[in-house]
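Inverse folding, one chain.
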């Protein structure tokens, strides 16, 4: 590890209550998301008069720090904190976050939104609101990039829905501000798979502007894959219990489609990031896509897409996946090759207050220098087009 610059592929910046209104196009201000307290002081993510989800302030490494707060609301007790007043600066302020990096031994860090990973679940059918609030976050991301002084890499927020003019405009904006990652849903796009021929031009745009499409865990991950009846008994609609054993399944489906239906082969400069969706499944997926490609040809008599290389080769070359410490990434990479990434997930309760030190202690592993260089920085640098 000595001398290897460490890049963290996963952290989050919490949105301030009026962030979307501050950065949204003025003509859409009435569509802006916001965070406001209810009668007991519990902060809610709001869209118009609609309460989308209860928000919270969490403590890194402590799940109960949110469970207790959500329990307070469920039992009708007053809120323990004021979101606007008590949100720690390290959770939301880019300058403060930048200054944390030296103490953590981290050179550069990726910053995902906090509530942005979920709200698409409720606004998916409202394309105007969807785009307006995504664009607002992207403008904020440009400010984060500036204040981060090259050390923070905020992740843009995009959708492939609707016409491609909006997508190209947002990609051009991200490119101008050197924002190289953009979060997007793993799900169907207006009823079309990600590999649909009508979306091929979208993947060309990602290549042209040098932006990496990024899949991250969030509310939309499970929807569209299972019928709502499976989770009808669960009041955590953005994070139901059954989403945990299925964690990463949506990414596997999306990647299988992109590989087996030829998107990665047709777009060799395209890179895909998968973050906070586990990584152990990647070993099985490598085997499965290769087996599926051969088996389908034998039983159908043709190929849906002719691939010059094995499907798993495209995954190894063009996809990078963050790994949790408990997954033992060094052992996984003995099977996969050095394609995983370090992610400390600050300030989430499953993350770490001191991301690098605590992550390394939990893995208990050593890595060869070349593997460590890829895992702790090189793979993310590739996604950032460095």
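Residues assigned per position:
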């Amino acid at each position: 590890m000595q001398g290897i610059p460490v890049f963290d592929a996963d952290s989050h910046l919490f949105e301030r209550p009026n962030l979307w209104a501050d950065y949204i196009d003025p003509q859409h201000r009435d569509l802006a998301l916001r965070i406001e307290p209810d009668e007991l002081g519990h902060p809610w993510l709001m869209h118009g008069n609609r309460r989308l989800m209860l928000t919270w302030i969490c403590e890194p490494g402590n799940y109960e720090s949110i469970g207790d707060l959500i329990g307070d609301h469920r039992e009708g007790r007053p809120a323990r904190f004021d979101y606007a007043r008590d949100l720690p600066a390290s959770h939301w302020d880019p300058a403060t976050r930048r200054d944390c990096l030296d103490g953590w031994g981290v050179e550069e860090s990726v910053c995902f939104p906090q509530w942005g990973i979920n709200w698409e679940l409720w606004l998916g059918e409202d394309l105007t609101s969807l785009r307006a609030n995504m664009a607002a976050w992207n403008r904020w991301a440009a400010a984060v990039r500036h204040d981060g002084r090259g050390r923070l890499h905020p992740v843009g927020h995009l959708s492939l829905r609707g016409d491609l003019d909006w997508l190209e405009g947002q990609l051009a904006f991200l490119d101008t501000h050197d924002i190289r990652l953009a979060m997007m849903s793993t799900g169907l796009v207006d009823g079309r798979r990600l590999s649909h021929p009508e979306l091929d031009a979208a993947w060309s745009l990602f290549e042209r502007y040098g932006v990496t499409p990024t899949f991250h865990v969030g509310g939309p991950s499970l929807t569209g894959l299972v019928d709502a009846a499976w989770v009808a008994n669960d009041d955590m609609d953005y994070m139901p219990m059954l989403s945990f054993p299925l964690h990463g399944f949506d990414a596997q489906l999306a990647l299988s489609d992109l590989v087996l239906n030829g998107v990665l082969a047709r777009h060799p400069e395209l890179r895909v990031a998968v973050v906070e969706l586990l990584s152990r499944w990647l070993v099985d997926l490598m085997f499965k896509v290769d087996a599926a490609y051969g088996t389908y040809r034998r039983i159908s008599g043709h190929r849906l897409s002719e691939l010059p290389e094995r499907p798993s080769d495209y995954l190894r070359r063009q996809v990078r996946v963050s790994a949790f410490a408990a997954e033992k990434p060094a052992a996984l990479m003995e099977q996969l090759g050095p394609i995983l990434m370090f992610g400390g997930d600050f300030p989430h309760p499953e993350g770490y207050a001191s991301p690098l030190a605590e992550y390394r202690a939990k893995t208990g592993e050593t890595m060869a220098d070349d593997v460590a260089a890829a895992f702790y920085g090189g793979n993310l640098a590739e996604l950032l087009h460095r």
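DSSP finds 16 helices and 13 strands in the chain. The CA atoms of residues 221 and 250 lie 6 Å apart.
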